[in-house]
Fold these 2 entries.
Entry 1:
Amino acid sequence: MYFKLSIRNAKRSIVNYLLYITTMTTLLSIMEVSNCIAIVGKQVGFQTISLPILITVFLVILVRYIDSFMLKQRAKEFANYLLLGMEKSKLSYMFLCEFLIIGAACFIAGVLIGFGISAALCIAVLHKENEINMSLFGWSILQTFFCFCLAECLGAFRKKRMIDKLQIRELVYEKDRNQKSGNGSTYKGWGIAFMIDLLCLTGLLVAIVFLPEYIASPIISIIVIPLLGSIFIFYKWLFGYLYAIRQEKPNFLYHKNRLYMIGQITSSLKTSAVINITLCICLLFSAMSFFCGVIMLHPGTDLFNIDSQQWMGVLQISLCLIFIVIYFSVLSLQQIVELKRESKSIKVMSYVGKSNKQIKELVKKQIACKLLMPMFMAFFILLFSIPLANLKLNLLLPAAMHNILLMSASCFAVCFLFFYVCYFFIVYTISKQYIGISNDRKHC
């Protein structure tokens, strides 16, 4: 009976599970690709198991946050079950069954997608089409299944502990807490520090490109310091500046929902700054991994043994996808939680003259802005550093590989845009039911 109830709840809550499904399927697909490519390339050793282990760690961490989110969304439902006399052991069994059902579907989808991608890579890039067979498929599935089971078992153990500690009163009266805003008066100091750091970063980058190798090589090892510093200082300045504007309340804020948007951005000042700094760095790592992977997979690159080099290329691109998934998963989860917390405030807008269409547009703008904010500094850094780095690579690489960095950047931009559109749709779809807007709803 409880298993059937789990199936029914999983079907009914499929929209709530969209973020979980997307994250799980994507990471399992990447894991399957890495396993298949490693087996085809006969790469046995730490480099073969390192990526699946890394993905498993990321999977456990991300699923942990998604579990907490799902438990909060269904807190009152679980409280009703407990009030009706359901034992906590039965409730935890039902909740675990839901995740196992969804997880099994994600595993099947991820394995099929991953094997399809790996087969395409083997044929088009690695030129090992003769080594693709069902035994390869079976062995790679076993490896992926082991990592999947490990992540699911760790997640199930934590879910059971979470449910066992639940109290009915806590579920019924659960409240979200807004973080207190900090003092934004120091943004001018952050702005000056940012300009100084940016000048240092630009000078070091120009030195690497135009100075001789014996001078440029030591600079490469220290350029990461002003690079990370510029990201940290920029977002400290940005959120401090927005908070200062919010406090001053100039006239232009009262037009086109600007005050609402700035209020949403600065509602959790410290947390938002830390998240944006972390995810901006994550996005830069993703871009660098993608560029390295493309260069490694290019036929003109001759750095290592061909099989090892191709495996390293696939590994780098896989890391790129992992970082992108982390970027969008964290932002999506944060945005869904914030929209749910502000659902009542958004609904009030309909009673003060806002139409359903206007509310939808406002929510879309909020989602779009939040998903792009960590990208601002990453885009700026890539925009002025890629042309210089491309110029340097053109001097080092053969003519057939000239401008490969520019082409890699274009491909990365397309990949990022694809994930952005997918996650935007997921967040908007989930959020619509929380804030109570639909295509056919009318407001007075």
Note: Confidence is low (pLDDT under 50) at residues 43-47, 174-184, 440-444.
Entry 2:
Amino acid sequence: MKKKIAILGSTGSIGSTTLKIILKNKNFFQVDLLSTNKNINRLKKQVKIFRVKNIIIHNITKFNQNKLYFKKKKINIFKNVKDFKKNYKGKLDYVMSSIIGLNGLEPTLDMIQITKRIGIANKESIICGWNLIKKNLNKYNTEFIPIDSEHFSIFELIKNEKPASIKKIYITASGGPFLKISKSKLAKFNPQNAIKHPTWKMGKKISVDSSTLINKVYELIEAKKIFNLSYDKFEIIIQPTSYVHAIVEFKNGICKILSHPTSMRIPIYNSLLFTNKISDVYESFDINKINNLNFQKIDKSKFPVNKLLNKLSSFDSLHETILVSANDTLVDLFLKKKIKFFDIYAILEKVLSLKQYKKFKFLKPQNLDQIVKLSENVRLKTISLSVQSTI
């Protein structure tokens, strides 16, 4: 029997890659749901190729513009996961959750209720809503697999290992497109420079996060939550070729390294492994690529992100949500050329130091509404501070 699959964010990079793997293995998988925000043309192509009968269009304007088209094709169209969930009979085998940003949290929480396994490729949802995600995973007995290459790698390296046996976990960073650029030149760089990642094909937002190394701050928070380890167990190191994704050092002197090509196909492929019969989708091991792995420490003088890394141990869920909401807003402003590259760090630091968020105080969010209200407040304050900084 074919495995029933749903993909949240099917028109994005992760969603499209997931579908490429499924296309090579159509005898094993049946796509029951696809979702998009605005990319209707790509969604139409995907629906046709995979003969999908259920879709979600999250953007209400696009939903209204296209609902008649899909209904004529006898395709069920929904505004959100809640509506889909009410109409779907049975249980899905696998959900890929790859909607970008905090917008992905509510759909993820809803999907956990109707699937046996979920792969989450959304940093923001895990950082801000892990308490809620974990609660749902336990309640509905849903298997969770992290899709981020670093967390997938750690997940693989510590399988069947006792947490007490772990001495150190090293999370690698490529250093982004600005690794070899001087700080003076860096200040003048624009969004077009920031999104040209040297080793990965990624979306604009995550490419900027890679260039600022904020993505590594995110990944440390994620790792702490997912693996339930303290921050002193983790360290970030630069590995420019992105061929090593994580290293785990054990107390018995053994060190495990996980290496794979710079393609999200590897984590996605392995998260879909219900059977060993599905076709390989990755390139063969190339020994030439590991001749010079060249590990480096982060240049603290160039990347102010170290200030944030040093503060993480004092962060609670409130600060983590503020960090994500402010950074998301700042990256959007940077991509629109409304602020400069180093403004991202400067304004982020200001937002995190504000005292006005005490009224939102929570150690762990008890519901989605708490996160949404705080996030919107932070977004507006970040925009206000950004305007002031450019005057």
Note: The longest strand covers residues 29-36.
